[in-house]
Amino acid sequence: MVKCFIHNDQYYVYDSYVNILLNVSKDHYIEICGLLAEEGDKKEKAHKNAKVLKDLFFLKEKGFFKSDDRISIEHPATKYLDDIMHHCINDLTLQVTKNCNFSCRYCTFATTNNITRTHQNESMSFDVAKRSIDFLYSNCSDSDEINIAFYGGEPLINYKLIKDVVEYSNGLFCTKTVQYRMTTNLSIIDDDIIDFLVANSFNLVISFDGDEIISGKHRRFKESGRNTFNTVISNINRIKKNYPAFFTERMSFLPVVFQDENIDNVYSFYSSIGVDRKRVNPLSVDLNGIDYCHSAINTTLYLRQHELFAQENQDYLFADIFKDRTSRPEIWHHNGACIPGVKRLFISTDGSFYSCEKVPEFDALSLGDVYNGFNLDNIKRLINIGTLTKDECITCWAWRYCNICYAQCISYDNKDITGLVKPCKHQKETALKYLIQRIDAKSE
Amino acid sequence: MKIAIIAKSYYIHNYLLCLHFILRIKIDVIYALKENINLMDIGAYRFRVIALDSLEECVNNSDLIIAHERDILTNALKKIILFSKNFGKQIILIKSNWDDGFITNLNGHLDSLDARDAAIPNSLPFAGELLVYNTIISLGRKVKSYFDYGALEWLNSSFNDTLLNSSFVLSQHDGFSSYDTLFNHININSNSDLMQLDKFVQYSKPDFVIVLTNSSELDRTTALCEKIKCLLSTDLLINNCRQKYLFFL
Q1: What is the location of CATH 3.20.20.70 in chain A?
Q2: Residues A259-273: what's their mean pLDDT?
């Protein structure tokens, strides 16, 4: 529950129980480290300094150095899950096809030996799509706004289904706003499709890496091997010219940036075609490849480490946590496990439910399907990922800052969640980095 | 009378809990859209509730339509008005929602408390609150609680004299009789409202706290309950009342 660290030759003790960061003397620091070690394996003995010990007892009286062993780990939504899952569903992602007309060199789907997903000639039928929408309709009574997303492969390969789903949904919902969104490579469009997307106020996320050289290196048509750049940029320009408001308000871009590439060049390119920085959300790629969403967690972690992405949001969130003086409730679970369907519900081409597109389509991770509804027992098991590492979580000093999702805890050998691969190390590094940032900001 | 309610699920739920004593009419059946009420819930109310697919069905089947303007898309509202006109049905358009006023005149509440004898006006007629109020009244207790002018205005502007159960509404307005239960209400809609809770609880020192909430507000509700527990140094018993909405007692 206590983290001791040294920064700029100063000694700090962070007590997560009271959520207070102390700047202490070297003597105090050594004594606290020693006492903590004594509580642990008792290998070290600190030098007992009477005055320092008196100060530490004073702190103890003030609530410092407490342990939290009365805590039981349970996601706060567990007992309300049945209610929530049947009233608050508001966001569906339909995997309308697993096929793609691109063969991007970094795309993990483009290989045939991928353990999670591969591009296949497999599409969602209207029957599955209709059941999905009907399921949403029956379980959304408490949701004011409905979101329906289309995901692939390249979703526009199955444009007819998208059109049918939109028409069906528009006819079904009477009083709720329905918002549509889609991630697309924007290569398969014509005027009719553009008119349809504009008429239904789609939010489009375009996967497009940048200039002709970069696109030529990475993004080529699957059949011809041709560079995709000219096709995509021409479609972007067509929308920009004919529907400028839609282009500005409804389109954002998702370039993949190799770690040895200069991200500023990507931003410059986008600026040259009239896209401001706010609408560009770069993803990084390494030798493991990328699937746009599946690796987005790792990508985000990488980008956060490199201060390229979301740092401001994280700082804002952490600042709120840092100010919090409430103690940990007796029934507690770390942050990060969102409630499936309320945040998002991914439905694969065969109608199986997963919490989002980041989760591999393993049977053990399925949340149910369009034929049988939710598998609440499995959902409860998945959102309570913290129970797998109960002892570690209860004694962890970074518990307030933890936001590990179960998608980060998947064993690809067992095709299920495991506590053993939880990225705790990174969480602790991020929390410590934040504490150091606060110290630096204060000293400035 | 058959009534169609076109509103968010929360307000439909509110009406289903209290319409029988807000209105003076006999209600046979309530119609609602399937998208706004879960079929699993419709057996949980005192009224017979039927969920329908379309606005046209709702209007056509009912004698009276209660429609919350702000919950309904413009096109849908136009349809409701058109169908009502075509089918010759009475329609009540509710312009503002039940929870539009927030912590009305908090200082006034506190002044009243200092004066001891004065009753504390309810700033809002939440259905759950009304239900509790009605339950206490039915037990023969004298309750000192009444709607403030904003709430009365809402009731009067929403429902005409022929529909409104004026005896119930007016009975709330006696601020000077003796009482054995003081019933007070505070609406928490934002974190800044939550900050004011300290002051409110410290002054009113309630024996019981009932938190009425929508299940989609779970995070904030948990925070609220934790805070109440701290302020009152008392156990908080949680009663998950028929699951749809959470009542913390």
Answers
A1: 81-311
A2: 87
In this structure, how many other beta carbons lie within 10 angstroms of the beta carbon of residue A68? 17
Report the distance separating Cα A15 and Cα A64, nearest Å: 7
Q: What angle do CA B129, B133, B135 make, to 5 degrees?
A: 120
| pLDDT > 90? residue A371 | yes
Q: Which CATH superfamily includes the segment(s) B2-94? A: NAD(P)-binding Rossmann-like Domain (3.40.50.720)
Q: Is A240 within 8 Å of chain B by CB? A: no
Instruction: Place A304 in a pLDDT band, splitting at 50, 70 and 90.
Output: very low
Share of chain A above pLDDT 70, in %: 85
Note whether A317 contacts B: Cβ–Cβ < 8 A.
no
Task: Classify residue A440 as exposed, middle or buried by CB count within 10 Å of its CB (0-12, 13-18, 19+).
Answer: exposed
Per-residue pLDDT for A350 more than 80?
Answer: yes
Report the SS3 class of residue A329.
coil
Q: Which residue in A81, A87, A91 has the most chain B C-beta atoms within 10 A of its own C-beta, making it the best mutation to test that interface?
A: A87
Measured between beta carbons, the chain B residues lying within 8 angstroms of A84 are 215-216, 218
CB of A139 closer than 8 Å to CB of A89: yes
CA-nearest residue of chain B to A139?
Answer: B38
If you average pLDDT over each of A207-211, A414-418, B95-99, which comes out highest?
A207-211
Enumerate the domain spans of chain B: 2-94, 106-248
**Cβ–Cβ contact B148 with A under 8 A:** no
Q: Please check whether residue B241 touches A, CB under 8 A.
A: no
Q: Could you count the other beta carbons within 10 Å of the beta carbon of residue A264?
A: 8
Q: What is the value of ipTM here, to two decimals?
A: 0.76
Q: Which residue among B6, B39, B215 places its CB closest to the CB of A88?
A: B215
Q: Which residue of A has its CA nearest to B242?
A: A83
Note whether A338 contacts B: Cβ–Cβ < 8 A. no
> Which among B10, B33, B218 is the nearest to A80, CB-wise?
B218
- Put simply, the answer to whether A175 touches B73 (Cβ < 8 Å) is yes
Average pLDDT over residues A65-73: 83
Give me the average pLDDT of each 10-residue run along chain B (249 residues): 92 80 88 93 88 96 92 91 94 75 40 36 48 67 57 72 70 55 65 70 71 62 71 57 39
Pairwise CB contact (< 8 Å): A142 & B226: no
The pLDDT, as a whole number, for residue B153 is: 66
Which of A 123-152 lie inside 8 A of B, CB atoms? 137-144
H-run or E-run covering B221: helix B218-232
CA angle in degrees (0–180, nearest 5) for A310-A311-A316: 100
Could you give the CA distance from residue A128 to residue A108 in angstroms, rounded to a whole number? 26
Question: Are A144 and B54 within 8 A, CB to CB?
Answer: no
Contact A194, A238 (CB under 8 A): yes
Q: Over pLDDT 90: what percentage of chain A?
A: 41
Question: CATH homologous superfamily of domain A81-311?
Answer: Aldolase class I (3.20.20.70)
